[in-house]
Amino acid sequence: MQKLKEKYLKEVTPKLMEEFAIGNKMAVPRIEKVTLNMGIGDLVKNKDLLEAAKKDLSLISGQYPSVRPAKISVASFGIRKGVPVGLKVTLRGERMWAFLDRLFSIVLPRFRDFRGVSLDSFDNFGNYTLGIAEHTVFPEIDFAKSQPHGLGVTITVNSKNKDLSRRMLELLGMPFEKKGK
Length: 181
Description:
Blueprint: H1 3-19, E1 31-39, H2 47-61, E2 66-69, E3 84-91, H3 93-107, E4 128-132, E5 151-157, H4 162-172
Antiparallel strand pairs: 1-3, 1-5, 2-3, 4-5
Helix pairs in contact: 1-4
């Protein structure tokens, strides 16, 4: 069992039940999935770079990404309907826990001048979205062989409460920024 999942089950769940007066263990929020998205708009013209981006995302996530086509044509951006514009991976189960463990303990602290992730990135349903400017901060990626791309990470939680979701991620070890400084 993953270290982070074990921490969730043994430490975080009882603490959330106590702090938020939750009587039923099944009512405690849990992470349903983690979705990784990478925009590849300019890579469509170069098949080698597109394959390299797919390889990088599969190294980061542990599974092969799906290619996402454009839903509509936008002439000003030079995009036609059906042309690949992004890569997407949805992680669940053990891969999700392994990814989150690496994200919290290895990747986020590698950022220069890192003071924590923003508290403003929660949506109204308690899901958290994090933008990473360069995917090369992941230790699996060889910086010399890879062209940096942005990566979107969305953590989907089955809670409808922002505060509950924030506290759960905080207890799991997500480094949030300190307010008041």
